[in-house]
Specification:
- The structure is a homodimer.
- Chain A has five helices and seven strands.
- Chain A has about 170 residues and is of the alpha+beta class.
- The first copy, chain A, has a single domain, classed as Chalcone isomerase.
- In chain A, strands 1, 2, 3, 4, 5, 6 and 7 form a seven-stranded antiparallel beta sheet that branches.
- At the A-B interface, helix 1, strand 1, strand 2, strand 3 and helix 4 of A face helix 1, strand 1, strand 2, strand 3 and helix 4 of B.
- Strand 4 of chain A pairs antiparallel with strand 1 of chain B.
């Protein structure tokens, strides 16, 4: 069950979750440790689209996977491993039926992105900084603040796709 | 039923379908008329993400809605109408369970983009060129070739969202 719970967090998170919460008692300490110095990359919402996904169950969201230039290059060139500097972002929104479509069909047919949901997650490749987790750092931000699961928990599932350099998503052409 | 069928094509297509097939007998004639001189915009796959969606039923896809700079600007500035030159692209892929996730959970939990599906669709704003359809032209390309429904059929549903300048999708922040 614990394994399943970990998988729920990580496999279903697809692009990775984050962040080892520190033993420090203060919120600021926790957040600093959680982000491991990783801050939200500037302009990530303008990055190019890698793929899209839908999570069922408690996550119940629609998500876009975005990549900075190094990540997109890695995907498109089908590299075995991503170069240092590659960052993959996972944005997500509530999974809601499109009202006009539901009215027309009498049932939910079209599902679209509602308000933001489940935070924003990043995987950043830095093989020197994150040697223990496949060269990837993982970070999650909720309402702009670090939070989420530990990088080790993320990595425990991302190991399943070691052959794809620990990245669940494939590039959608 | 006909109305429902039209809605299936257009509401569910979300970003619009295309293309009035000509009476001409030749395939080339049909395609030329279908695209109305509209060709696939260069580099559209690199455009920024507007939103994501999932269609059930026979369409059964995951889709990304992308916009050129003018379209993104229109969305972000919450303009009442989009400026001429705005183009919205709808890319779509098969809706497939992520194998690793299904194995872990014993049921489909994570759905990801499979191979491309249902063509690529565009809405292009040109109020002088397309006055009869709200100032928007509609085009669909299947495997790079024009095809799909007529712009009038698209527009018959897009009229439902006249208040949003005939655009079903909202920007996902």
């Amino acid at each position: 069950m614990k394994r399943i719970a970990l998988l729920l967090v990580t496999v279903s998170a697809v692009a990775g979750v984050a962040v080892s919460l520190a033993a420090g008692s203060g919120q600021a300490d926790k957040e600093a440790a959680a982000s491991r110095g990783f801050t939200i990359p500037s302009g990530y919402r303008d990055w190019r689209l890698i793929s899209v996904a839908h999570e069922e169950g408690t996550l119940n969201d629609l998500r876009g996977i975005l990549g900075n230039d190094a990540a997109i290059k890695g995907f498109r060139e089908k590299r075995q491993t991503f170069p240092d500097g590659a960052i993959i972002a996972r944005v997500a929104w509530d999974y809601v039926p499109l009202e006009e479509s539901s009215k027309a069909f009498g049932h939910a047919q079209s599902f679209v992105a509602g308000p933001p949901k489940n935070g924003v997650q990043f995987m950043v490749k830095d093989s020197k900084k994150y040697p223990a987790t496949g060269g990837w750092g993982f970070a999650q931000f909720n309402d702009g603040k670090p939070g989420g699961e530990s990088a080790e928990i993320c990595f425990s599932c991302h190991q399943i796709v070691k052959a794809r350099d620990f990245v669940f998503n494939r590039y959608a052409p």
